[in-house]
Sequence to fold (420 residues):
Amino acid sequence: MDAEAKRRQLSAALNRVAGGDRPALCLVYEMTSAKLFGVCLRILNDRSEAEDVLQDVYLTVWRKAASFDDARASPITWLVAIARNRSIDRLRSAGVVRFSQPIEAADAVADPAPSAAQTLEDAQESKRLKSCLDEIEARQSAAIRSAFMDGLTYEVLAEREGVPLGTMKSWIRRGLAKLRECLER
Amino acid sequence: MSDTGARDKENGALTAAEYVLGVLDADARRAAERRIARDMVFAREVAFWEERLGGLADAVPELVAPADGWARIEAALGSAATTEEPHGMWQSLAFWRGLATATSALAVACLAALIYVGAISQPGAPLLARLDAEGGKPSFVAAINTNGGNLTIVPAALLGAEQKSMELWLIPPGDKPHSLGLIDPNRPVTIKVPKDLLREVSNEAVLAVSLEPLGGSPTGQPTGPVIANGKLASL
Fold:
């Protein structure tokens, strides 16, 4: 199945979930759980918490599927946003400053899955984002990437990079402004 | 005035980006969420960044979700799930059949969920069976409601057998096969299990599908090859 067909199928399944179709939720889970579990674990860096949050993510999808609008958002992006928000909220509520490990360490915690959701992403959109990130200053784009991946606050990011808080804020804010300019071009 | 307005707009755009990026603390996140609910311009900004930055998740490796992941979600949904009308179930199946052909292994877990939703609308615990072909490829999923005696069998893969009939058999432990009737390889079929046979339906019994001459086995016992079989189990 090609990427476009997969996206359509995932959108259709989400629309069915909005109507209370439990098997459709099962289908959404089968198609996306490996991706979303990867996202949760990357942020939480704790397998059992990531498992809890993953469950919470699909319960949220069950309740909020009606607000998914396939004219405005791609289904995988919508799901990733829920997974990230739930994970970040859990991370903040834990009240501990957790230094997320580099990617390699997170990989070691769980088995890599065959990349089922990869083709769900909008290749053109990702390509554009990457070229825009390449255009901006390296340390700004690095800070943006690492903030997104790990869901860390300015404070923790600054500490991790060993720079003053104001410096980290200005890297990310300037980077975001330039990124926006580039994306809208 | 216009200057303040412009600054507000700027701040809103920046806060939306910061919210999506995930750099805000818990209080600022709650404030941003409240603003999404009441400020459409801000909500659109958030949507813009979610869509654009979402691509960064490409770099996050996919990981096998916990084995009991779906079961935990189903348990949490519990009675909160809507009990689907049989009509809804067939509609679901129609949607669903298109995908079974592409990814039948994935589909089986969901088929079980589908039949289960249909089955729990009646009293009595359902027994489920996945009927695998040789080599372990799932071919059918069946559910029996032991109370009412309704058996639903759903094809999980495309099976071509136009010149033959497919007959379903119940095989109690240590007993010979009992015919449950003919099934359709292309659509779900619901069979009323006769009362005397329903007593034989248990965790130990096996369901099997054999290829028979058109119209079914002439002898009352399977005459053709068994193309799929599986043991019944409670959920």
Remarks:
- The two ends of chain A are 32 Å apart (CA to CA).
- Residues 22-44 of chain A form the longest helix (23 residues).
- Residues 100-110 of chain A have pLDDT under 50 and may be disordered.
- Residues 1-96+107-121 of chain A form a domain with the Rna Polymerase Sigma Factor; Chain: A fold (CATH 1.10.1740.10).
